[in-house]
Amino acid sequence: MTLIDGKKVSADVRAELKTETAAFETQYGKKVGLAVVLVGEDPASQVYVRNKIRGCEEAGIRSFAHYLPANASQSEVEELVSALAADDNVHGILVQLPLPKHLDEEKILACIPTAKDVDGFSAENIGRLAMNEEGTVACTPSGVMELLKRYEIDPRGKKAVVVGRSNIVGRPMALLLLNADATVTVCHSRTADLKAECAQADILVAAIGKPKFITADMVKDGAVVVDVGINRVDGKLVGDVDFEEVSKKASYITPVPGGVGPMTIAMLLKNAVACAKRAVR
C-alpha cells in the first residue's frame, strides 16, 4: 500500500506556482491578484481564509482580503464583489462560504465574472467542464486529479466510482474522471446496491460526508482509494473511509488529514494563476 501524500504534492505545486507568478510579474508588471471576501465571524471560515491568504504569500500571489460584518446587507456584499470584478488588479475572486443565512448566496456568486471564478462554481465553468473544454475547475476535485497525476495513476480505461453527487465535489469529480477516459459511476443516497458498486471500482472516490462510511468489504483488492471527507469525531479529524481497515486492501490511499485537504488551497492558487494568464492573452 502506498500512502498518497497531499502535503508534499501541495508544497510542490506551491513551489512551482511561485516560479510562475514571478515570471508573470516580470512580464506584465503586476502580481497575480486574488480577492477573498469573508462575511461574518464563523470560526472555521476564518481559519480557511487565513490559510488561503498564507498560501497566496507562499506562492507569490497578492491577496486582497475583505471582511464584512455578519449583518452586512445583500447590496453591500454585491457592491463589494462587483467592485472587485471591475478591478484589473484582481484576477480571481473567492467568496467564502457559507454566507450568513439572510444573504442570497446564488445572487452574490453571480456577481463574480466567469473569468474570475477561481472556485469553478459558475454555470459556465461547469458547462465547460462537461464539454471537456478549457475553464476553471472546482478546487477539491481538481486536487484529486493532481494527486493521481503526480502518483502516475492513469484513470484511462479504469472503472471509477464516485460516492457523492454534490456540485462542489461529486459531479465535477465524475466529469474530470470521464474526461480522463475512465468509466464512471456516481453513487448517492438512492443507489440500490452501494456496496456492490463500490466493490467494482479500480478508483474509488469517497465524498459523502459520513465518517468511516466506506468499509473494507466495499473495496476490492488493489483499488486506489481517495478520501475527500473531513469529519470531526471525538475531537479528531477522520475521513469518509475506514482508513485502518481499507488501507490493508488498497494499492494507494489518501489519509485524513494530509491527503486531499492540502490540495484544495493549492489548486485554488493554481486557478488564480490560470485566470491571470487567460486575462492577458
Describe the structure.
- With 281 residues, this protein is α/β, with parallel strands linked by helices.
- Helices cover 41% and strands 16% of the residues.
- It is built from ten helices and eleven strands.
- It has helices spanning 6-28, 43-59, 74-85, 105-109, 123-130, 139-150, 170-179, 194-198, 243-246, 261-279; strands at 2-3, 33-39, 62-68, 92-95, 159-163, 183-187, 203-206, 224-227, 231-233, 236-238, 252-253.
- The strands form three sheets. The chain has a six-stranded parallel β-sheet. The protein has a three-stranded parallel β-sheet with strand order 3-2-4, sandwiched between helices. A two-stranded antiparallel sheet has the order 9-10.
- Helix 2 (43-59) packs across helix 10 (261-279).
- It starts with a strand and ends with a helix.
- The relative contact order is 0.16.
- The mean pLDDT is 96.
- Order of helix and strand elements from N to C terminus: EHEHEHEHHHEHEHEEEEHEH
Say how many strands there are.
11
Task: Estimate the mean pLDDT confidence.
Answer: 96
Strand line-up across the major sheet: 1-11-8-7-5-6
Biggest beta sheet summary:
6 strands, parallel
Low-pLDDT runs: none
Radius of gyration, whole Å? 19 Å
Structural class: alpha/beta
Shape: globular
* Count of separate DSSP helical elements: 10
Helix content: 40-55%
Distance between the termini: 44 Å
Hey, roughly how much beta strand do the residues contain? 15-25%
